[in-house]
Specification:
Elements (H helix, E strand, L loop, with lengths): L4 E6 H11 L14 H17 L3 E5 L7 H5 L12 H16 L4 E2 L6 H14 L3 E5 L13 E8 L3 E5 L1 H8 L3 H11 E2 L4 E2 L6 H11 L2 H6 L6 H9 L1 H10 L22 H11 L2 H13 L21 E3 L2 H9 L7 E5 L2 E3 L2 E3 L2 E6 L2 E6 L5 H12 L4 E3 L2 H11 L6 E4 H8 L8 H9 L20 H28 L2 H21 L1 E3 L1 H26 L8 H11 L7 E2 L2 E2 L3 H11 L2 H24 L6 E2 L2 E3 L9 E3 L11 H7 L2 E2 L8 E7 L2 H10 L2 H8 L4 H10 L8 H15 L4 H8 L3 H14 L1 H17 L1 E3 L5 E3 L8 H38 L4 E6 L2 E6 L4 H13 L10 E6 L8
Parallel strand pairs: 1-2, 1-4, 2-3, 4-5, 9-14, 10-15, 15-16
Antiparallel strand pairs: 5-6, 7-8, 10-13, 11-12, 13-14, 17-20, 17-23, 18-19, 21-22, 24-28, 24-29, 25-26, 27-28
Helix pairs in contact: 1-2, 2-4, 2-13, 7-8, 7-11, 14-15, 16-20, 17-19, 18-19, 20-33, 21-24, 23-24, 26-32, 26-33, 28-29, 28-31, 30-31, 31-32, 32-33, 33-34
Length: 897
C-alpha cells in the first residue's frame, strides 16, 4: 500500500447533511450566528482525519446550479427546496476554517464538486495514492476501484460506509462501472432525473448482468419483454440522457495540482481565532489533540481553553479543621468556586457534600461530619469571600441557609451568565457549558449500576463536587469575557446577581396560606363542577365523558350537527377557543355548561395543586425561574403563582387564601404594581408626543386612545371601544397582526385592520418605532432592552415566512417586555435596600407579573407604602411617569387596588 494517502471531501454534500442532522436551535454563538452545519462538518472532518490519517487533503464545493448538465437539461435538479439563508453563511465559515487548516478548497466554473473530486481521485490513483472520497452523493460509487474507496455517510454525519467495489456489488448487484447504468435506468430523484417507470434496482441489475452494461441493455431493448420492457422502450431517450448526465468527469483542468493538497500547512493562530469566534471550545481541544497525534502540533484551542483547562485537578478530601485551614489560606477577593449536592423542595433543603476550588486547588468536605461549632466557623470563613462562583446558585443557597451556611455572597452564577448570552437555550447544563466554553470535561459521579447517582461520600463523589467547583471558576471567566464583549456584563452584575439574592430570601420566607379557605374552595368548586356536568348531560339527554375529545366530537358534530371546527389528526378540534366560537354561533346550553365545567374544573385543580405545596410551616414557597423567559421576565413553579386567574370572581377567591401570617407577628399584606408599564415604555421608546402628553396629564390611556381612534370625545368612549383599543395597544407590544386582533376581539379581519390603521394614523411615531425595531434587529441580529439585555434572533432572515414572522414578533416584544422586566427587578432591589435602611420588619414575599406582595409588620403600612412608591416610581428615568398602585389588607385579594 502506498505511503501517500489522498482524502477528498464533497464539501456541499457533507455541510448540507450536517445542517439538517443537527438542530439549528442547539448550535449558535452568543452573537446569534447559527453553527450547526459548521460544527457537523468539522466533526465529520475530524473523524475522517483520525480514521484515514491522510497525507493529502482537498475539499470540493459547488459554485452554483449553472453547469453543463443544466445547459443540456433545464429541469436538472429542479424542485429542490431553496437553500436556507443561514446555510450560505456557514459554508463561508467552513471555507475559512479549511483555509486556516491549509486545506485547498477546489471549485470549477460550469462543473459540479463531483467532477472536481472525480478528476482529483483519478489523478491520485494514477500517482499510486491510496485515495478515499467522502461524499453523500451515490453517483460517486462509479469511481470505486482497487485504488479509490467511497466513504458514504450511512447515518448522521460521522458514521461512514466504506464503499469498495465489493461493497457496491453486494449492495446493488452491479460493479462500480455499471452503477452509472443502474442509476440511469432507475432514475435519480435528487437530481430530478426520471427513470423507467416500474424499474427498480433489482430489475436494472438483472438487465445489466444479462447484457454486460447499459449500452448492451439499450441495444437489446426490443428483446426485453413484459411491461418493464415496454416502459424501457418508451423511455429510451430519458435513460440515454441520464447516462450522459450522471457520468462524472475525470479530466478537468483544475487550478491545483496534487502537491498543493499536501496536508500540514496549518495557520494555528488563525485557526484558534476562528474556533474562538465560533465558540467551539471542545471541538478545538479535540482538533488540537488530533493534530498533535498527527505530528502537527500547535495551539488551536480557543481563548480560555488552554492546556490547564483540559485536566481537572484532583480533589483533596478534608475534615472540618482542614477546611478551615484551607479557607484561611485563600485570597478572599479572588474567585472561589462552590459546588454541592444540595437539594431543596417544599420549603426544606439538605446538603451533604460541599466542594470548593481556587486556583489549581480543589477540596471537598462532608458537612454532616462537621460539628455545630465547625459549621459556624466555616460559615464565617466563607462570609469573608466577595467573589463566590456557583452554577444554579439559588437552590444551593437556600439549602446552605438551612444547613447553617447563611449570608454567602455570590459574585457570578454561571447559569445566569450563560442565559444572558443565549436567552433562548433550552437548558444550561454545567457539564455542557464547561465543555463548550472551556474545553473542560467534568465527569459525573459514579452510578450504582442502576443509573442512580451515588450521593454517599465516596471518593468519586468528592472528585465530582470538587471538579465542578473548579470548572465553574473557569466557566465564569469565559462567560464574563463574552458578556463584556456583548455589553451584557452590567445586566449580570447590576441586575440579575443582586436580584437573585432577593429571590433567595423571598423563597425561603414563602407566603402564609389559610388552609381552611382552600378546603372550602375545594368543596365549592367540586359542587359547581358537578352542577355544570349534570346540566350538560341534561342538555343532550345522556351522559358523556366531558374530558374525551372523541366523545365530544360525536355529540357536537353528529348528534347536534354543529358547524365543523378546525380539522386535526384525530377529527375536529374541541379546544376552548373552538368551543367558544361554537357557543357564539349556536348558543347551545350544552356548550355553555361544558365550558363552565372546564373552567371550574381547572380552578379546582389549581386549588388542589396549591394545597399540595403547603410546607410544614403552613406557607407556600414557590420557586422563581430567572432563566426561562427570553425577555428577562420571571416565571414560577411549585406552584406556578402566575397561573392564578385574577379577572374572574372565582380566581380572586383563590387569592383570598393567601394571607398575612399573624402567628409570626405580621399584620397585613401590601400589594404594589405598575400601571400600564409596557405602554409607558412604548411611549418613551417611540417618543410619540400624543401618548407622552396623555401619560403626563394623568389621563386614562385607553379612553384617550379610543377617543383618537374612534373620533369621539374622551367621555363618550364606550366600554366596548375602550376594550378594543386596550387589546390593540397591548397587542402591538406583542407583534399582534390584524388577524390575531380579529380573533382576540371576535371581529372581522377588515375591522381589525381598520382599527390598527386608525391607531397608526394618529400615533405615527409608534408605527415608525415598531418598524425601526424590526429592521434594526434584522441588521444587528438581536434586540436590546434599555439596560443592554440582548435577545439574538437569527430567524429574522429565515426564508420560511412563519419562522421569520415569529422572530419579528419577538423583536417587537423583547425590548418593551424586557425593559419592563428589568425595571421591575431594579425597583425590587431599591425596595429591598429601602426596607433595610428603614429597619422595618416588613419583607417582600412574591413577585407576580408587574406586582409585588409585601408582608407588613404591625403599624408599618404608611412608612412601607411610601418607601415602595418612591423606589418603584424612581426605578427608571422615562419621558412619562411610572405610576404605582398600592393597596393593603389581610389577604392578597383584600390588598388588591
Amino acid at each position: 500500500m502506498s505511503s501517500q494517502k489522498l482524502l477528498l471531501i464533497d464539501g456541499h454534500s457533507l455541510a448540507y447533511r450536517a445542517y439538517f442532522a443537527l438542530p439549528a436551535e442547539n448550535f449558535s454563538t452568543s452573537t446569534g450566528q447559527t453553527t450547526n452545519a459548521v460544527y457537523g462538518f468539522m466533526s465529520m472532518l475530524l473523524t475522517a482525519l483520525s480514521a484515514e490519517r491522510p497525507t493529502h487533503l482537498a475539499v470540493a464545493f459547488d459554485l452554483g446550479r449553472q453547469t453543463f448538465r443544466l445547459a443540456e437539461y433545464p429541469e436538472y435538479k429542479a424542485g429542490r427546496a431553496k437553500t436556507p439563508d443561514d446555510f450560505h453563511g456557514q459554508v463561508e465559515l467552513i471555507k475559512d476554517l479549511l483555509g486556516a487548516l491549509g486545506v485547498p478548497v477546489v471549485t470549477k466554473e460550469g462543473f459540479e464538486a463531483d467532477d472536481v473530486l472525480a478528476t482529483l481521485a483519478t489523478q491520485g490513483a494514477a500517482a499510486g495514492m491510496d485515495t478515499n472520497i467522502v461524499s453523500g452523493d451515490k453517483d460517486s460509487f462509479q469511481l470505486s476501484s482497487a485504488d479509490i474507496t467511497i466513504l458514504y455517510p450511512k447515518r448522521g454525519i460521522t458514521d461512514l460506509n466504506r464503499m469498495t467495489p465489493a461493497a457496491v456489488e453486494e449492495k446493488y448487484g452491479v460493479s462500480p462501472a455499471n452503477y452509472r447504468g443502474l442509476a440511469a435506468l432507475v432514475g435519480e430523484k435528487a437530481d430530478n432525473l426520471p427513470g423507467v417507470p416500474g424499474v427498480g434496482e433489482k430489475t436494472a441489475a438483472k438487465w445489466l448482468g444479462l447484457y454486460g452494461d447499459l449500452p448492451g441493455v439499450l441495444a437489446h431493448a426490443e428483446d426485453i419483454g413484459g411491461k418493464a420492457g415496454g416502459n424501457l422502450r418508451d423511455h429510451l431517450a430519458d435513460v440515454e440522457r441520464n447516462y450522459r448526465l450522471n457520468r462524472l468527469l475525470t479530466d478537468l483542468d483544475l487550478p491545483i495540482a496534487l502537491a498543493d493538497a499536501e496536508f500540514g500547512r496549518i495557520d494555528h493562530e488563525a485557526l484558534a481565532a476562528l474556533l474562538d469566534q465560533l465558540e467551539f471550545q471542545a471541538l478545538g481541544k479535540r482538533l488540537e489533540v488530533l493534530l498533535a497525534d498527527l505530528g502537527l502540533e500547535g495551539t488551536t484551542s480557543p481563548a480560555g481553553a488552554g492546556a490547564s483547562a483540559v485536566e481537572v485537578p484532583e480533589t483533596a478530601v478534608l475534615d472540618g479543621a482542614g477546611l478551615l485551614a484551607w479557607l484561611a489560606d485563600r485570597d478572599a477577593e479572588a474567585p472561589l468556586g462552590v459546588a454541592s449536592d444540595a437539594r431543596f423542595e417544599r420549603g426544606s433543603g439538605a446538603v451533604d457534600l460541599l466542594g470548593l476550588a481556587q486556583g489549581e486547588d480543589a477540596v471537598a468536605v462532608e458537612l454532616g461530619e462537621l460539628s455545630a461549632g465547625e459549621l459556624a466557623e466555616v460559615a464565617t470563613a466563607l462570609g469573608r469571600f466577595t467573589a463566590l462562583v456557583m452554577h444554579d446558585a439559588k437552590p444551593q443557597l437556600k439549602a446552605f441557609a438551612q444547613a447553617g451556611l447563611d449570608g454567602l455572597r455570590v459574585w457570578t452564577d454561571t447559569e445566569l451568565a450563560a442565559y444572558l448570552l443565549v436567552p433562548d437555550a433550552r437548558a444550561y447544563d454545567l457539564e455542557a457549558l464547561t465543555d463548550q466554553h472551556c474545553g473542560i470535561s467534568l465527569a459525573p459521579p459514579e452510578t450504582d449500576g442502576q443509573g442512580t447517582l451515588d450521593l454517599s461520600f465516596s471518593n468519586e463523589a468528592a472528585q465530582a463536587v470538587g471538579g465542578a467547583a473548579w470548572g465553574v471558576v473557569a466557566l465564569a471567566e469565559a462567560l464574563r469575557a463574552k458578556l463584556a464583549d456583548t455589553g451584557g456584563l452590567g445586566v449580570l452584575d447590576e441586575i440579575e446577581m443582586p436580584f437573585q439574592a432577593i429571590l433567595v430570601r423571598m423563597e425561603l420566607a414563602g407566603i402564609a396560606v389559610d388552609s381552611g379557605a382552600l378546603g372550602t374552595l375545594l368543596e365549592e368548586f367540586g359542587a359547581q363542577a358537578e352542577a355544570a356536568r349534570d346540566a350538560a348531560y341534561e342538555a343532550i339527554g345522556h351522559e358523556v365523558n366531558l374530558g374525551s375529545p372523541k366523545q365530544l366530537q360525536v355529540v357536537l358534530f353528529e348528534e347536534l350537527d354543529m358547524p365543523r371546527t378546525k380539522r386535526t389528526k384525530t377529527g375536529y378540534t374541541t379546544d376552548a377557543d373552538a368551543l367558544a366560537d361554537l357557543l357564539v354561533k349556536t348558543g347551545h346550553p350544552f356548550l355553555e355548561n361544558l365550558l363552565a365545567y372546564r373552567d371550574v374544573t381547572k380552578l379546582r385543580q389549581t386549588v388542589v395543586g396549591l394545597g399540595n405545596t403547603v410546607a410544614d410551616d403552613g406557607r407556600i414557597h414557590t420557586s422563581y425561574l430567572q432563566t426561562v423567559a427570553a425577555t428577562g421576565r420571571l416565571s414560577s413553579k411549585d406552584p406556578n403563582l402566575q397561573n392564578i386567574p385574577v379577572r374572574t370572581e372565582a380566581g380572586r377567591r383563590i387569592r383570598e387564601a393567601f394571607v398575612a401570617d399573624g402567628d409570626r407577628g405580621y399584620a397585613e399584606l401590601l400589594t404594589a404594581d405598575y400601571s400600564q408599564i409596557e405602554m409607558r415604555i412604548m411611549a418613551h421608546l417611540s417618543g410619540d408626543e400624543a401618548l407622552i402628553a396623555a401619560f403626563n396629564a394623568g389621563e386614562d390611556l385607553h379612553s384617550f386612545v379610543g377617543s383618537r381612534v374612534f373620533g369621539v370625545p374622551t367621555d363618550e368612549v364606550t366600554p366596548a371601544m375602550r376594550s378594543k383599543v386596550k387589546a390593540m395597544s397591548y397587542g402591538l407590544v406583542y407583534g399582534l397582526s390584524a388577524f390575531g386582533l380579529s380573533k382576540q376581539l371576535r371581529i372581522g379581519v377588515e375591522e381589525a385592520r381598520a382599527l390598527m390603521d386608525g391607531y397608526f394614523e394618529r400615533f405615527g411615531a409608534v408605527k415608525h418605532y415598531l418598524d425601526e425595531v424590526v429592521e434594526r434587529a434584522r441588521a444587528a441580529g438581536y434586540t436590546e432592552t434599555m439596560y443592554g439585555r440582548r435577545r439574538y434572533l437569527p430567524q429574522l432572515t429565515s426564508d420560511r415566512r412563519q419562522v421569520r414572522e415569529m422572530a419579528e414578533r419577538a423583536a417587537l416584544n423583547a425590548p418593551i417586555q424586557g425593559s419592563a422586566a428589568d425595571i421591575m427587578k431594579i425597583a425590587m432591589l431599591r425596595v429591598e435596600d429601602g426596607l433595610r435602611a428603614a429597619g422595618v420588619r416588613s419583607r417582600m414575599l412574591l413577585q407576580v407579573h408587574d406586582e409585588i406582595v409585601v408582608e407588613l409588620g404591625p403599624g408599618e403600612y404608611e412608612e412601607v407604602a411610601g418607601i415602595i412608591r418612591g423606589c418603584m416610581g424612581a426605578a427608571a428615568e422615562l419621558s412619562v411617569p411610572l405610576d404605582v398602585n398600592v393597596g393593603h389588607g389581610r389577604s392578597w385579594q383584600d390588598a388588591a387596588h
